[in-house]
Every structure is written in structure tokens, then in C-alpha cells.
Amino acid sequence: MDKRTIVKKFAVYGRNVHPLAVEILKDLDQKNLDNVIAYICKTVDSFVISPEDVMRALKSYKFEEKPKRDVKDVTGKSMCEGTIEDFIAYFKSRFEKVSSFVRRRIGGIKVSALEKFRNEQVEVVGMVKDVRDYGEFAMFDLEDKTGVVSVFAGGKLREVALELFDDVIGVVGIYRNGRIYADRIVFPDIPIRERARRDFGVVFISDTHFGSREFLEREWDLFTRWLSGEVGSGRLLDLAGKVKYVVIAGDIVDGVGIYPKQEEDLLITDIYSQYEYAAEQLEKIPKDIKIYLSVGNHDAIRQAEPQPALPKEIRDLFSNNVVHVGNPAYVNLDGLNVLIYHGRSLDDLITKIPRLSYDRPQEAMIELLKRRHLCPLYGGKTPIAPEREDLLVIDEIPDVLHSGHIHTYGVGFYRGVLVVNSSAWQAQTEFQRKMNLNPTPCNVAIYYNGEVGRLRFCK
Questions:
Q1: pLDDT value at residue 38
Q2: What pTM does this model have?
Q3: Concatenated DSSP letters of 218-268
Q4: How high is the pLDDT of residue 181?
Q5: Could you tell me which CATH class the domain 3-60 is placed in?
Q6: Is 106-186 a domain of CATH 3.40.50.720?
């Protein structure tokens, strides 16, 4: 929400408000914001509303939340045909969704209106295109529905600009000589929130690659025996008893024809038989644990994201405790909101941003939250289906963002959201060796009561 609008809303009640108090309130959605302001003005006697007044009110105010669905994904909803109209609708949806988050942080004027503000500070929201590096400074174009303006980014902002893709951002700066000289680059980002705490355990795994010669069956058996309470002691055994959900972030099987000479790496060469084997292996997980099974680029589904869940003839192979979802998918685990995204776009980010690496995948995942989009680079290694609504926008802030794909383990917290990449159950293949990819297999993240632990089932 625009800061000036918040000030005006308090003025309706005859109150002034401290700038830091406005900062606290600006990330609320409009309905909650209006109700919170009314609540503050009803319960606080001060003429000037302080940050402390706001914090006390927020602690006692009961927020209205949207009811959470158990699963939200593209399954059964895909309508795109790849027409020009589909692509126009897709980018329009991306812009409208993400720009709404940016406008909660700055006001923003239309590009077409910039000529009225010569040599003045302006705030513009738009989509980035054509980033250029000129050594001591960078330039990029910022486009909204009314036009395009060039942005000059010098000093520390040069490095920020060089990490931009097809992002929707805000720019604050001086408009002069037909361009904006940036003072700030504003990302849509997520607001700070408290960690979610639930009195049950959730295990996050990914990239099982059933059917591969390099599938680590001994380690998988150890993992499933731990979940069954057959191995471990003390706290480890206690944790196993608290596990209510297992969430798998795609690449269930190794697939067929995914990369050159893959057949040499396959123990099972038929895709249907790979899923039969996958179903047998998931049978080893206790039936009172619900399994959420997403998909990835090795699975028997369309490659373009967002991906629907596996087809019915494959889903029918699995037990009733397996819930099949697409990629990405929001799943509600008894109030814990988990966003599952296989993570193919992490390749694009790690390749394009030098400070990121495969050894610390959580840092690349944080970039997705910061940009409020699961695939901020269009036209890279990640194919995107031009759905009429951009379902890769992070419009709901999850408690957990769970990915896989790159076969390395990493966890962290960003503004109260857990980001977790839970490695794989496949040893290094010859293809990975040639690509200099060094997996850290059989590392499992378990989330319990706001904390995350790491379990290693490998040698």
C-alpha cells in the first residue's frame, strides 16, 4: 500500500501517524489495512500514532485470512494453446500481479507521464528489459503499459542492475534528459513474518530418480525404516514418530531420453515400469503418513512450467496415502502452507548471477522470494507455458518454499519463510560428472515446531 494513502486513511480519523508506523503497515492487504487502522484509532488515544502503538495493536488484532485450500496448482486448469494472444495475456498477468506488490512499497507514476517531472524525483514501476553493462555503470529499460524509459544505475546499484532479468521492479530516482538516474531499485519482496510453528513433523525430500542405476536403494531403505520406527534411538526415534507428512519436490523417476546417452544410466528402461517401481518404494513409507508427490523435468509430463500432476494411469499405481500435485503447487498441511517448486529455474539464476552457487541452493531460492516469481528469467533453460494467468508468481506467501532439482542440500530462513532444497537419492551420474555437478545425496530436511533439522542417510 502507498505510504501517502496510509497517512490519508489515518487523517480521516483525525490522527497523524509516525513514518516508522507507516513502514510497519504498508505490506498489509487493503481489507486488513482498513480494518487495522480503524482498530488502532478506536483503541489508541494518542494524536500521533507511534510504531509502538501499531505493534501493540497488531498483536491483539484478529486478522481476516483467506481460507486456505488443501492444494492449488495447474492440474485440470491449463487452457493455453501457444497463440500470440496467450503470450500477451501471460506477460500482462505477470506484470499486473507483481507490480501490485511493488506498489505497496512505492507509489509509482506512468512512464507516459514522466515528461511532467523533469529534474524531479520520480517513482516508476515496470518490467525490466535489455540490461547493459558499461563498466562503471549499467543501464536497462523499464516498461509499463504506457511506454519505456531507460534507467541509469551507477555505484552500488550497478551490481543490483546487472542481476536483473525480466523482473517487475520499482525505480526511484531523478528524471532528467529522457532517462531516470536511479537512487533506489525496489523489489516486490515478501514482508517479514513469524516462523510457522506446528506440533507435527514434515519431511522434505526430492529427486528420488527411481529407475536409475545410481538410485541409492540401501540409503532409501534406511530412510523408510527410520520413518517406520525400526532404526534410530532417542531423539531421532522420537522425531520419526512425529512425522505426519512427506513432501517430494519432483523428479520421481529418472525418465527416458532426458539427456544424451541416458540409457546407459538406466536400470529400468521403460517409463511405466519406472513408476511401478516408484510406487513399490513409496509403499515402504507408513500408511499413516500422507505423501505429497510433485513432478519435475524427468517425469512423464509436459516440460513447460507450470506442470500438471501425473496422468491418471500413473497416479493409479500409487497408494491412497499419496496425493499427486503439479509443479508448482501450494499445499496446506494442517495450516502449514508449503509451496512446492521443483526448481528448474535455479539453473538459470545460478548461471546468470556469479555470487550464487550450486553448493548453496538456498541463496538462489531466496532470490525467488525476493522477486516474487518462481522463474524470473524468461527464455532461459526453463520452458514456460503461456497460461492466461501467470501461476509462477508467488502471490501467496508460504511458510515453506521447498525445491530440489540441483541435487545439493541447503536450508535457510528468509523473512520468516523456510527455504529448503533437500538434495537427491541418486549418486553422481556420468553426465553430472562431465557437467562438474557434485550432488550431496540422501540429505533430508525435517521441519518441526518452527525449527529445521538435517538427517543424513548416506555414508
A1: 86
A2: 0.84
A3: HHHHHHHHHHTTSS--HHHHHHHHHEEEEEE-S--B--SSSSTTGGGGBS-
A4: 97
A5: mainly alpha
A6: no
